[in-house]
Amino acid sequence: MTTVAQRLNSVKATLPAEGVTLVAVSKFHPASAILEAYNAGHRCFGESRVQELQVKFEQLPRDIEWHFIGHLQTNKVKYIVPYVSLIHSVDSVRILEEIERQAARIDRVVDCLLEVHVAQEETKYGFSPQECMQFLNDFTPSQFAHVRLRGIMGMASFTDDEEQIKHEFAILKQLFDELRGGVLCGCTHFDTLSMGMSHDYLEAIAQGSNMVRIGTTIFGEREY
Ligand SMILES: *Cc1c(COP(=O)(O)O)cnc(C)c1O
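# pyridoxal-5'-phosphate complex -> structure
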């Protein structure tokens, strides 16, 4: 049996020395497992359910950076806005508007990524690359003074077809580059391309990811 700390270090050893942020995805794992990674020096954790995050936030050290990576319901945004470090999963304009509203109330600026859907699986969530482009073309920063758009997040299809996965990551990278060279040109904080999970993060990095979200390889299988 390996420990969380050992698996965390094994994953870190596979990452480039610089330039790729590791989000340890701790959803469905207990606070004690997070603390093991914390005691090994890790500070950045990803959760996908608001209630679970609330409980863990209360239980665990305050210098943890909490990333939210799951689908957000409008009525729950207010619970995480006070302390969340980065919301990866902004999957609609409505959610971004609610984040703006709640962040304005407490005078905080919240870092956000737009979730872009490129995988083959059907989903109700996320922008298509075209919708993302369109949204940012029409974007009025003054309407969103309390959100800071940091980049985009995406997932590849759940498949063994490596060419397919590579192709989907390449689409996300291309969109990211197009936005940075175009509508978001000069916007230095738009710098994050979050892609890659346990089974595909090395390919994601090869395609230009600079933030990976890894759960199972660090914490083991989840029990839902
Ligand atoms: C659960 C989850 C992950 C982590 O997946 P693993 O396969 O356990 O590494 C990454 N990103 C998102 C959006 C997730 O929901």
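# post-check
The chain has one domain: 4-219.
The chain has a mean pLDDT of 96.
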